[in-house]
Specification:
Layout: E1 19-27, H1 30-40, E2 44-48, E3 52-57, E4 60-67, E5 80-88, H2 91-104, E6 110-113, E7 117-123, E8 129-135, E9 143-144, E10 147-148, H3 157-162, E11 179-186, H4 190-200, E12 204-209, E13 212-216, E14 224-227, E15 243-251, H5 254-266, E16 272-274, E17 277-281, E18 287-292
Parallel strand pairs: 1-4, 5-8, 11-14, 15-18
Antiparallel strand pairs: 1-15, 2-3, 3-4, 5-11, 6-7, 7-8, 9-10, 12-13, 13-14, 16-17, 17-18
Length: 295
């Protein structure tokens, strides 16, 4: 997984303050999805309409749910969403989500201690993958050259629950400060993914293996994960599927946005402007919204 520390950098890094923005998910039954994201995960409806709803925490938008009645589940052998990862501000915040998942008896897919973080994995009612996690402090992360050391160890679930001061208290939802921490995508080819996400967009590779790639800005453990575990050389999910419609990357200002757009233009990747945001797609038709901060 390690990147050779002596390997010369041949790309321009994206600005270190870059982070992830909201993601847009297509769902087959909007009311069912809104119920799940509010009552099970504790998000708030920030904006609601006939064709979609924006879900958030405090005043921060996290997910735009796009109604697509009759949509089918994403085929396993297709590119697109692996999971959206929702970052909690603290271990007790994660613990409150764990307690509410138990109260609502919602099925959880798994738990993992990644050394840099503690994570819960589950699917929403449409099978859209989700990770709910909290980070350990950066000073506790271990590094090996250019690599951030990560693992998938058993999680201390009892410790997470015990961190909550009053486990019997009613669940009041995800607090302000909750964000989209990272995206994990199904892609068709790892070298091509590295060529786009590192060489063009400018993310730094923090871990790489034959079947997966993890990249970040500013030394984070990863802002975007990519794998070919079920999607090597696969086509994008059909248009009538649920799943990822768009995800956001937020850069500090319009100068940082312009630097990325110049690199996209240099390799022939077209974009369109929507107000202050630039929209373009990766090689697997994953649509990306590149926004300057506070646009």
């Amino acid at each position: 997984m390690a990147i050779n520390p002596s390997e010369a950098q041949t790309y321009v890094s994206i600005q270190p303050a870059t982070h992830m923005g909201p993601a847009t998910l297509a769902v087959a039954d909007l009311a069912r999805s809104v119920d799940f994201y509010t009552n099970v995960l504790g998000m708030t409806v920030l904006n609601a309409g006939e064709n979609g709803s924006t879900m958030g925490a405090g005043t921060t938008p996290l997910l735009h749910l796009q109604a697509k009645p009759g949509a089918k589940r994403q085929p396993e052998h297709s590119t697109g969403l692996y999971h959206v990862a929702i970052l909690q501000s603290s271990r007790p915040d994660l613990g409150r989500v764990v307690i509410n998942l138990a109260r609502t008896q919602y099925q959880v897919g798994g738990f993992a201690d990644h050394l840099v973080s503690e994570a819960i994995y589950l699917d929403d009612p449409d099978g859209n993958g989700l990770e709910i996690y909290r980070d350990r402090p950066r000073e506790e992360w271990r590094r090996n050259g250019n690599q951030i050391v990560m693992a998938s160890d058993p999680i201390d679930l009892d410790g997470i629950v015990a961190s909550v001061e009053d486990p019997e208290a009613p669940f009041t939802g995800m607090p302000d400060g909750t964000t989209i921490g990272h995206m994990h995508l199904r892609v068709g080819d790892i070298p091509k993914a590295q060529a786009f996400y590192q060489d063009v967009l400018g993310f730094d590779v923090v871990a790489k293996m034959p079947s997966a790639l993890f990249v970040s800005a500013g030394g984070y453990h990863h802002h975007i994960g990519m794998n070919v575990w079920h999607s090597r050389n696969a086509p994008p999910a059909p248009a009538d599927s649920v799943g990822l419609q768009e995800y956001g990357i937020v850069v500090p200002d319009t100068d940082a946005q312009g630097e990325v757009l110049a690199r996209l233009n240099a390799v022939g990747v077209t974009h369109e402007m929507q107000d202050a945001d630039a929209l373009f797609s990766d090689p697997w038709s994953n649509r990306i919204r590149l926004s300057p901060e506070n646009s």
